[in-house]
């Protein structure tokens, strides 16, 4: 009898419409039929996923062949950060079940739990870059350890609207889905203000007033799935998109272009690709809320920060057609 591989399934019972728990048995059956012995961890409170993966790393970092996370972008981020922090060198599989599943959409993973589980069993393993964020002079200003690293697999952002996922009521989000994000965005629109920033990359320095910025590893976020048409998760680069201060009518026109993915030549956009980006406030009396970073829907360190690409940092199980389009498969 062929020895079964070990799989750790982590799921958030509060993600999305909370229905994944009703489909747990069929998913486990797919894993078992595919040669995996599945061990399940149900997340019940903030911080328990990190603690659980730390315990696994202390026992045996290589015990599990695959770690699967069922949830949204935030759940994926928590798992990725713990795997990087504790050196867990396992493949990562995703079953999208959250409200915001931007990274899963980019990968082309089906939202049906059984179909996503079949991809984990039969898909292709590829290497994906990550972004890593470090607070500059953190201990002096906020008490953060300057050695602490915060990883993101999809997006890092700051400014207006970027922290909506952190501030929105869970029940409201789960009931209305992505519509809840847009409603919350409209609530924030009346208080919109720009942030004076100094942005440094490998080519030079930019001084701009921005309403917001996002740094992408994939092709989209916040329901905009086609922000970067040629995005790759394994090219060693991150995409920076900043929305400059401007007239309201200009910004309204820009939003239409963002939806169409046709904005790179817009004068209101600062766009570039790089593997290193430093972002610093460039003025006084800036609203502290606008200096908070959001990493895949989770809290990150406040500005100023340095952001780097970590090449080929995680082994990711993806659909075969995605691997053919995007990256060189490992197996």
Molecular structure report:
- With 331 residues, this protein is α+β, with helices and mostly antiparallel strands.
- A hairpin with a 2-residue loop joins strand 13 and strand 14 (298-302).
- It starts with a strand and ends in a 5-residue tail after the last helix.
- 30% of the residues lie in helices and 33% in strands.
- It folds into two domains: 5-122, Rossmann fold; 131-311, Tumour Suppressor Smad4.
- The longest helix has 14 residues, at 73-86.
- The protein is built from eleven helices and 15 strands.
- It has a 15-stranded mixed beta sheet that branches.
Please supply descriptive tags for the structure shown above.
331 residues, alpha+beta, Tumour Suppressor Smad4, single chain, Rossmann fold
Biggest pleated sheet: 15 strands, mixed
N-end to C-end Cα span: 23 Å
Unreliable runs = 140-145, 162-169, 171-190
Radius of gyration: 20 Å
CATH topology title of the largest domain: Tumour Suppressor Smad4
Specify the overall morphology: elongated
Number of strands: 15
Overall number of domains: 2
Query: Tally the helices: what do you get?
Result: 11
Helix content: 25-40%
CATH top level of the largest domain?
Answer: Mainly Beta
Residue share in β-strands? 25-35%
The helix-and-strand class reads: alpha+beta
The CATH architecture category of the largest domain equals Sandwich
The average pLDDT is 83
The SSE string, one letter per element, is: EHEHEHEHHEHEEHHHEEEHEEEEEH
Short description:
By secondary structure, the protein is an alpha+beta fold. It has helices at 24-33, 48-60, 73-86, 102-107, 113-122, 138-141, 164-167, 170-176, 178-189, 248-260, 320-326, and strands at residues 5-11, 36-42, 66-71, 91-96, 124-135, 150-152, 155-159, 195-201, 204-216, 238-244, 269-274, 276-281, 292-295, 298-302, 305-318.
């Amino acid at each position: 009898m062929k020895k079964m591989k070990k799989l750790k399934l982590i799921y958030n019972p509060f993600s999305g419409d909370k229905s994944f728990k009703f489909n747990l048995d069929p998913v486990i059956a797919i894993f078992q039929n595919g040669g995996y012995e599945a061990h399940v961890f149900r997340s019940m409170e903030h911080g328990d996923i990190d603690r659980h993966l730390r315990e696994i790393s202390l026992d045996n970092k290589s015990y599990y062949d695959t770690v699967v996370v069922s949830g949204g972008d935030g759940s994926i981020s928590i798992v990725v950060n713990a795997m990087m922090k504790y050196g867990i060198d396992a493949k990562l599989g995703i079953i999208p079940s959250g409200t915001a599943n931007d990274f899963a959409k980019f990968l082309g993973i089906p939202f049906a739990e059984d179909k996503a589980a079949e991809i984990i069993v039969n898909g292709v393993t590829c290497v994906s870059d990550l972004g890593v964020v470090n607070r500059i002079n953190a201990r002096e200003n906020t008490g953060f350890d300057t050695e602490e690293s915060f990883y993101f697999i999809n997006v890092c952002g700051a400014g207006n609207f970027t922290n909506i996922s952190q501030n929105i009521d869970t029940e409201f989000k789960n009931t209305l889905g992505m519509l809840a994000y847009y409603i919350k965005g409209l609530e924030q629109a009346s208080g919109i203000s720009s942030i004076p920033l100094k942005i440094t990359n490998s080519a030079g320095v930019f001084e701009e007033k921005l309403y917001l910025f996002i740094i992408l590893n994939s092709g989209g976020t916040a329901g905009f799935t086609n922000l970067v048409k040629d995005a790759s998760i394994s090219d060693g680069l991150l995409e920076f998109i900043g929305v400059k201060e401007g007239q309201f009518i200009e910004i309204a026109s820009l939003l239409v272009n963002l939806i169409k993915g046709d904005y790179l030549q817009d004068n209101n956009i600062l766009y570039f690709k790089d593997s290193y980006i430093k972002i610093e406030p460039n003025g006084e009396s800036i609203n502290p809320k606008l200096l908070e970073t959001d990493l895949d829907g989770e809290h990150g360190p406040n500005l100023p920060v340095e952001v780097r690409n970590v090449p080929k940092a995680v082994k990711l199980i993806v659909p075969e057609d995605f691997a053919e389009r995007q990256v060189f498969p490992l197996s």
